[in-house]
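Regression test attached.
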Amino acid sequence: MSVAFAPSNAAALRSALDELYANYIGCLDEERFEEWPEFFTDPCLYKIIPRINVERGLPLATWLCESRGYLHDRVVAIRKTSVYGPRYIRRFVSAIRVLRASESEIEVRANYAAYETLPDELTRVFSVGQYRDRVVSVDGQMKFAEKICIFDSELVPNSLIYPL
Amino acid sequence: MSVAFAPSNAAALRSALDELYANYIGCLDEERFEEWPEFFTDPCLYKIIPRINVERGLPLATWLCESRGYLHDRVVAIRKTSVYGPRYIRRFVSAIRVLRASESEIEVRANYAAYETLPDELTRVFSVGQYRDRVVSVDGQMKFAEKICIFDSELVPNSLIYPL
Amino acid sequence: MSVAFAPSNAAALRSALDELYANYIGCLDEERFEEWPEFFTDPCLYKIIPRINVERGLPLATWLCESRGYLHDRVVAIRKTSVYGPRYIRRFVSAIRVLRASESEIEVRANYAAYETLPDELTRVFSVGQYRDRVVSVDGQMKFAEKICIFDSELVPNSLIYPL
C-alpha cells in the first residue's frame, strides 16, 4: 500500500475527499452496487450502527462487513435474495472534516442524509447520521479502510436494503 | 465560445463548479428569477423530468425550455401570470461529480434537494433528485448548455412553480 | 486583528470556508457546545431570526447574542438550566457563497438544514434557512464576527434549544 497524501496542501486534500464522497454517493444512488465494494480495501470494516449504541458502548451493529467478500454478499442479497418493493434512495453528504491526516491514512467525519421515495409516494427522510471513516491510498486511489455509518434515529430503519 | 477549462487541475475545476452551483442556488432561493436565464447558454436545454420516465426512455418532461427566451417566459409566469400561494423553496446540492471534462465542456452530475415552507406550516421535503448538466465556458464564465433535473418522486409535484 | 485572506486565490478561500463550516457543524452536532463560542469574535453578533421578519424589516429575533459571554450563557442554559427532552440535531450546509472578500473580512451566505431525531421517533426536518455571515481572520484563524441564521418556517420552532 503506497502513500500519496499531501496533508501540507489542505485544499488539494479536501478536493480529493469531495471527489471520493461524490463518487461513492453517485455509485450508490445510481444503483451501480457491483462497483460499491471497490471503494473499500480488503480486508475492511463497514458498519451501520445506531448512535445510541455507539454512545453506550454497545457493539451491536445493524450491518457489519469485514471484507470485500462480505460487501459483495450484500450486493448479491440486493440483486437476488432479498424480497422488497421498489424504491429510490438518494444520499447527501455535508461537512466533510479531516480529523487527522498522516502520511498513511486520513481520518474523516462527515454528515450524511438519505431520502427514500416509494412508488406513488412523496419523498421522505430515510436516515441521517455521521460517517466516521478511515481513508487510505491504494495504488494512488483513495479507499475506505473503515466506514462507520452512525444513524441518529433509535428506530432501526425497517427497510435498510441498500448501503449508506 | 471560448474554452477555459483546465481539467489537469482537478481542485481548481471542482472549486469553480462549487461556486457555479452555489451561485445558481443562491439566485433561485433569493428569488432573483430575472437573473436565472443568465446561467444558461442560448440556445440551451432545461428540463425537469421524473426519474421513472428517464428509466423507461419516455420523453415526457414536466418542464422543457430550449432557449433563454423560454426560461424568461417561465419567469414572466412566476411574476405575472401564475396563480399560487406564497411559499419559500430552499435548495441544497451535494455530491457534485465531473463525469467528463474536455477542453470545450464538462459533464456534471449532482444531487439536489428542495424544501418547501408554506405560511404557518413546517418545512417539508419538496423534491430530491439528480442534476445532469453540461457546462461550457462563455467569455470565461461557466454556463449551463444543458441542465436536466430528474426528480425521484413519481408523483409530479403539485406546485412546481419555481425552477429547480 | 490581523488579516490573512487571499481573495486572489478563490479555490484556497473556498476550501478554507468549507473547513470552517464543517468544523462549526461538527462542533454542534457532536454537542461540544463549550467550544462553540470560540468560533466567534468578541464582541460578535449571533442571531436566529424568522425570514418573514427579515423581509418585513422587523427586528425581532428568536435568539440574539452580542458577545462570547452571551453565547456562553446559552451553553450554560443547555447544560444546566433548560428543561427539555433528549434529542439529536444534525446539520447540513450547502451552496456556500462568497458575496464579498476584502482584505479584512469576507461576507458569506450559505444554506443550512437541521434534522431532529427524538427517542423512538423517525428523523424529521427541523429547520432550513440561510446563514448570512461575516468572517474575519483572528491570529490566522477564521472567526464569525457575525452569524445570522434566517429560518424559512414562519412558525418559531417549538424546541430551539441547541444553536444552529
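Expected vs. actual: identical. The mean pLDDT of chain A is 93.
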